[in-house]
Task: structure prediction
Amino acid sequence: MNYSKILGTGSYLPKKILTNEELSKTVETSHQWIVERTGIAARHIASTTETTTRMGTIAAKKALEAADLSPKDIDMIVVVTCTPDKFFPSTACLIQQELGIPPCPAFDVQAACSGFIYGLSVIDQFVRSGMAKRPLLIGSEVMSKLVDWQDRRTCVLFGDGAGAVAFAASDEPGILSTEIGADGYQKDILYVDNKPGAFIQMEGSAVFKLAVMKLEEVASKTLKNNHLTVHDIDWLVPHQANIRIIKATADKLGLPMERVIITLTEHGNTSGASVPLALDAGIRSGKIKRGQHLLLEAFGGGLTWGTALIRY
Ligand code: ACO
Result:
């Protein structure tokens, strides 16, 4: 059996931190409102040199170090991002060159904030089929360039950063299963147009309700398909959009918040980078241990959603 086993993780956060207090000097908001409605206290904001490619490269380097691999070991690169530096080449090709990875398949996957779960599903298919032995999956985002800094309904939510995971095909588990889905009929509740000066447009409460409904549905389906219950899950590693969405989903599943990895307090919503950033934080802090069962989940523009069940 070819499982996609996690060998190592890494992440990168921009140097500049923007707190709620600082934000409340430029838009009409308050630390209290943002924390109560979202759980976010601060976010990292990329400088002009902290590009999607640069941050993804640093995160990937750390993942390779943790995995004890060198760039020449990698035989596939998948980057998830909705904020690429160029229309083409793909960010995966740019990172390949920066890291010095020899020629191999390299491409980007775009599923907004669900991107990393889509990426996990994609690399797992390549590993299971035998086409990839050592894939590298990277999520990197500069969300700050998609945000209207005058719009208090959205600018308080997002942040920048990158996370990466190095995998190896293995007889030991691995990714046990992935579920991904999309409903393009909901395209108008969360989007950014591709034209100069366009920013994130979002119907916050509609996204909120659909996110909670879909996440509970797809997480329950994942557990059922794998003959597991919530008691078998050691850690929920959710997309970090809003603490109330995470809590509502955990409550519906019957999972205590003590078993949920939370990074949004300091990171905000980093879209496709949020799940690998949370995973890396959980692993490096020693909370997530080898052999444990992890349930990763995300939702985002599209609408898109997904889960990945992993034995770490
Ligand atoms: N500071 C102060 N007041 C604010 C702010 C702010 N930053 N933002 C909105 N308000 C006001 C609104 O104007 C509104 O005022 P009104 O009643 O006078 O009109 C009031 O607060 C309540 O606004 P709501 O939008 O109803 O607030 P809600 O409780 O729904 O919280 C939020 C808004 C945080 C956006 C929430 O709906 C949410 O998190 N939704 C999900 C969004 C999400 O996860 N998006 C990312 C998806 S991932 C991707 O793919 C990008």
